[in-house]
Amino acid sequence: MKALLEPRSDAGSSRRAGHRKADRPIVPLHARLSKRPVSLEWSTDAPLETTLAKNEQIAWMLEGKMEFRLGSEQRVCGQGDVVVIPGGTEHEAWFREDSEVIDFFAPPRDDFLVGGKPAYISEG
Q1: Which of 19, 90, 98, 115 is buried deepest, with most CB atoms within 10 A?
Q2: Nearest to residue 102, comparing CAs of 54, 58, 56?
């Protein structure tokens, strides 16, 4: 699979309605179970390390800006951008402002399922 950094189709800087956590609906699945789309919220200059994950990853930028390196390609990603990271591809990111990202992993990441801090987040 080819690594892909996809430029956003809308260059506007305003946040699209429905992306704020408070705007995302809670979806009832059962009397005792509901869901809401989940995202990661990164603070400015969050301490991240280069990673070589075995899982395929898709990152969707909801808000903010991320400088991103995928293999030898580097870009700045913003609201609406999507990054596809094939498993086994070295990558790293720098968040220069507070950002919100939804990450999809295939297969699901075991370290995310058990909770705790992922290995690529440094103490910095």
Answers
A1: 19
A2: 58
The token duo for 20 is 């704020």
Q: Bridge-partner residues for 59, per DSSP?
A: 83, 103
45 within 8 A of 96, measured Cβ to Cβ? yes
The secondary element (H helix, E strand) that includes residue 110 is helix 110-114
* pLDDT mean by block of 10 residues, the chain; 124 residues: 46 46 68 66 79 87 92 93 93 89 83 66 62
User: Distance (Å, rounded) from C-alpha 40 to C-alpha 50?
Assistant: 18
* pTM of the model as a whole: 0.65
C-alpha–C-alpha distance, residues 49 and 119, integer Å: 9
Tokens 């990661």 appear where? Answer: 40
In CATH, the architecture of 1-8+38-124 is Sandwich (2.60)
